[in-house]
């Protein structure tokens, strides 16, 4: 899965909505925008994991806590972030595990960013960066849980294909979502539905 999804994974690192997370001197407004964007994607995606979420801690509560903290300190809008709607269908355990692989990888990557965000923005596990810290989450145990699920459910050529395609579709949906948030507002006379063209975390 890593080889097939590497191109979109690299594009997402440079996407204008997420770029503030890795900038040398990030601004709080850009950080808040990235947190709101991730919230808008994770909230509707996590319930789609179904039984394949077993052994995994939900990240939606962490993102919600981060938004409450950041907005209570006057760092941005307190309005409810929009939620992504154009999401992949996950019709099999293998597909749901492909999606989980993406979401879990994002959480692992967030932990790697935490030090930089703490130094540059003063955030932390209990100060607007619970998601990036994976606060109170045992990441090693989650990795073992995911591996166990994969070994039980992704065992044939067909299930491998389903998992890989779902991982690609999840990344594409995230890229579409970020593109939608970044796209300049249209005038009321124009069709405001999200474009189906990708990529669209």
Q: Explain this structure to me?
A:
- This protein starts with a helix and ends in a 19-residue tail after the last helix.
- It has helices at 2-14, 28-45, 60-72, 93-121, 130-133, 139-153, 157-182.
- The radius of gyration is 17 Å and the shape is globular.
- With 201 residues, it is an all-alpha fold.
- The chain has one domain: Heme oxygenase-like (Heme Oxygenase, Chain A).
- The protein has 7 helices and no strands.
Looking at the structure, the CATH topology is: Heme Oxygenase, Chain A
What is the rounded Rg? Answer: 17 Å
Q: What is the overall silhouette?
A: globular
Bin the helical content.
55-70%
> What is the CATH H-level superfamily?
Heme oxygenase-like
Return the CATH architecture. Answer: Up-down Bundle
Number of domains: 1
Residue share in β-strands:
under 5%
Low-confidence stretches: 185-201
Give the number of DSSP strands: 0
Summarize the structure.
The protein is mainly alpha-helical and 201 residues long.
Notable traits:
mainly alpha, 201 residues, disordered C terminus, Heme Oxygenase, Chain A, single chain
Please give the structural blueprint.
Elements (H helix, E strand, L loop, with lengths): L1 H13 L13 H18 L14 H13 L20 H29 L8 H4 L5 H15 L3 H26 L19
């Amino acid at each position: 899965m890593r080889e097939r999804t590497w191109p979109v994974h690299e594009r997402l690192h440079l996407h204008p909505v997420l770029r503030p997370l890795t900038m040398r001197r990030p601004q709080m407004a850009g950080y808040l925008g990235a947190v709101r964007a991730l919230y808008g994607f994770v909230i509707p995606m996590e319930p789609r994991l179904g039984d394949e979420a077993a052994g995994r801690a939900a990240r939606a509560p962490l993102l919600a806590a981060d938004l409450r903290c950041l907005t209570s300190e006057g760092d941005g809008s307190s309005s409810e972030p929009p939620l992504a709607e154009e999401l992949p269908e996950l019709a099999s355990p293998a597909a749901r595990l492909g999606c989980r692989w993406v979401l879990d990888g994002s959480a692992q990557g967030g932990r790697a960013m935490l030090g930089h965000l703490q130094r540059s923005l003063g955030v932390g596990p209990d100060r607007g960066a619970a998601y990036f810290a994976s606060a109170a989450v045992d990441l090693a145990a989650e990795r073992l849980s995911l591996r166990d699920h994969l070994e039980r459910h992704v065992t044939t050529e067909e299930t491998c294909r389903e998992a890989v395609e779902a991982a690609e579709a999840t990344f594409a949906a995230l890229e579409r979502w970020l593109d939608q948030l970044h796209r300049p507002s249209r005038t009321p006379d124009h069709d405001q539905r999200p474009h189906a063209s990708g990529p669209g975390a």
